[in-house]
User: Fold this.
Amino acid sequence: MQIKKRLIALLLSISMLVSLCGCGIYDVLFPDCAELAAESVFNSDVISRENIVPFDDIKYVRPDIAALEAKSEEIELLLESFLNAKEVVLGLNEYFVMYSNFYTMMTLASIRHCIDTDDGFYLEENSFCNEAVADVDYSTDCLLLACSNSFLSDYLDEFYFNGLLSEQYSVTDGSGYTPSDELAGLERREAELENDYSVLYSKYSSDFDKGSYKKHNKEMGKIYVELIKVRNEIAKLRNEASYCLLAYNNNGRDYSADELSSYTEAIKKDIIPLYKEAASRGLLDSSLLAKQTADKAFALMTGTVRGLDTRIDEALDYMLEYKLYNVESSDRKYDQSYVVYLDDYNSPFLYCNPTGYNDTVLSIAHEFGHYVDGYLNFGTNPSLDTSEMFSQGMEYLLLCNLNDSDSADTLTRYKMLDVLMLYAFQAAFNEFEQRAYALDDDELSLDKLNSIFSEIAKEFGLDEQYGDEVYTYWIAIPHLFTSPFYVISYCVSDSAAFELYNMEHEKKDSGLAMYMKLLDESTHYDFLELVDACGMRSPISADTVKEIADTLSSKLGL
Assistant:
């Protein structure tokens, strides 16, 4: 839930205020200090990075889940009396330090597992942490609901939670939910299933690289069938009308799936025909790509983005100094790329598994866009779409600023073809998710899911590339399993980022200036509000899709 994403930053801000303004911890409860503490979750002006060490020196310690649960129960007892306000705040501070440490250690275990999937220690620790998430979040939900129900509710909400308590845990309007052992059990099972899939994905990724999906369809598909059933039950217990609504809320979206209907129809009308034409002409193979080492790709990315803006330079220098990245080539690495945030160190970490070709430059730039956002905004950006806009926007800025004209021309054409594929594939995956989660339990089966995806794949033209096995291709998409209802954000955010690309071409540095303005304002607005407040057009309008299609058609000669 969104409150949990922002609580850690708030707690760190309060801790810093204690040291900076000389207040005693009890004084932080009162308006003269509390207003600054509340604002700092958005402004990030007092969060410190003084405790950072090089990534390789960060020590992993398995989190003590029992101690965290005991602290939650202790605070719940204190909440029974208003006289315990000071003790409650001290206890909450201690609890959220433990909560932050849990997620830091979980993230650390995940990174090190991804770097070397053959390392048995981090394989076990990654599984332990992933499966403990349900227990940790259950404990946190119980604690926050107890805060909401207590004599201190209004007091804590105003001076400690900055209004997030009533926003997310109100017990008066009937929109909330009650934590329960049943819900915790379902979320624990969800985490187990996600972990089971990740293990299999790592095991079979070499087959997927060769275009072989069918032989793993049954084993991996049955996991998805159970995941849908479990998640639909979770939505019911969380008092949501559907799991889709719950996922949209968790992803920080300020629009609904229904509001995207004209947008996705425009993709089908204006972009999918271009994709099909490109596929039929054989333009979507890897012929544009040249072999390139990870070191050269990384050097090209860093050399291009350096000097664009002093704040981008600051983020880059920090990443390099503390080795908060891994872009090395290894057949033991997990086949994904991402940026994650290490809460205890207020630092993002960039991970990329290079392809061995020059498209790796774009992959690293994409993740560096996430990195800059995480660094400058201290990981407090709650909107998935906003975050993806910065990653895709960084790719476009890189293309517009490459010094090597041959590389720029080749990568630009490749990127335009990639954009066609992005809209075709992610819009298809989105439709697949929508239809899969809408199935009744008696309809839900692996055969039904394969049938639905086969139908969608043909409609979107995916069969042009994946042939006879296309109906089983969906099992190789980790986001469907571990990040439900995420995929449409790639389209929506690109529709905003593409405007930055057009702006930069029309007037040099105008797209960059808008990119930095969006970064500055991003924690103050939801996604659609942000682009509107900064003077950009709506990314989910049919007109926006048409303009993107026209640009792609012109660039690619389609």
The chain is about 65% helix and 0% strand. Strands lie at 325-326, 338-342, 347-351. Residues 1-6, 8-46 have pLDDT under 50 and may be disordered. The longest helix spans residues 405-437.
